Amino acid sequence: MTDKPDRLVDLADILDRTGLCRATIYKLIQHGKFPRPVKIGTRSKWRSSEFDRWFDGLTTGTAA
Description:
alpha+beta; 3-stranded antiparallel beta sheet; 3 helices
């Protein structure tokens, strides 16, 4: 069985799903409490699997 390739999501998707502002997302990244983005040129993208794991951890109390 092959794993489905990870989808990359942009900052607008992250902001929409979390309700957080850009500055808060980057502050969480700086403190190691949010997944680091993948840089594609000057753009930041997040692996959907890493974001989903972080987001799921919020409800289970295991978010970094």
